[in-house]
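Good morning C.,

I know you're traveling, so I'll keep this short. The sequence:
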Amino acid sequence: MIERAGTDKVIGESRQLKHEWGVILAGGDGTRLKSLTRKITGDERPKQFCSVLGDATLLEETQRRAAFELAKERTLFVVNRLHEPYYSAILADTPASNLVAQPRNVGTAPAILYSLLKIAAADPQAIVAFFPSDHYISDNRKFMAHIRSALDTAHFRQDLVILLGVEPESPEVEYGWIEPTESIKGHAQVYGVRRFWEKPNHVLAKVLQLRGCLWNSFVMVASVQALLEIIASATPTLYRALACLSPLFGTDDEAKTVRKLYRRLEETNFSHRVLALLPERLAVLKVTGIRWNDLGEPRRVLASLHMAGVRPHWLESATPP
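The tokens, ready to paste straight into the viewer:
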């Protein structure tokens, strides 16, 4: 079981920082990028376990990025047990209690809920930052400075879920977009959320860009209680199904019960089934000064390599689809 957060003062670490947690989402199958990752590795491993943009795997790069602001002992990794041959070496130094091992991939909502329940059991006062493990980010330090702003805001506004919205470079039709409203008093660059626009057509995407809408990075920061509340409100059946795990955390019965539960779970997307339904509980922090890409498709990987000025060895044999 994750070590429960204490209340004694720790030298060099404020009481506030002690309640800050990170979750790296690394349980996806990476299906749309398989044509490219086969060229890189010669096998079927998902993209997060591949050295796509340099020497480090995408998971390692995400791990390094999160470490700028979040303690290693309070960083969890959501993985898929079927991928253990690929992540075991990368996460060899990670305690088993910091691995949230799912029996199979059933979408982002169960992955997020399972990790939140584990954190809530250890630290009910937690503020949590979620990071997908398949992003290109041009400057990790600058990006994590935005995360620091989001963490600081979440400590004061524990009712809100703060999304990181990236200032768009183009009218991208494969991304989700966030339409902000007025700024939140006392919190620079943080705005209310009017609505989501999921994968708009090209004409609408151009309109959204002109209206000041932002790319949804799916990086988010919030109190553990706010996140659990919105999941329970939006998907009560899923919430009840996984909440029964809490008494089992750290016991031999946890893995067995999780396997049974996951056989019955339907795939559930967190953006569609949770965030989009409750815009009044959301805020968006505008991310500027960096370049960002979701590495969901081969063309975006190649675009990111161009942005970074990197030409890895596998690129010579990779043909864009």
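Safe travels,
E.
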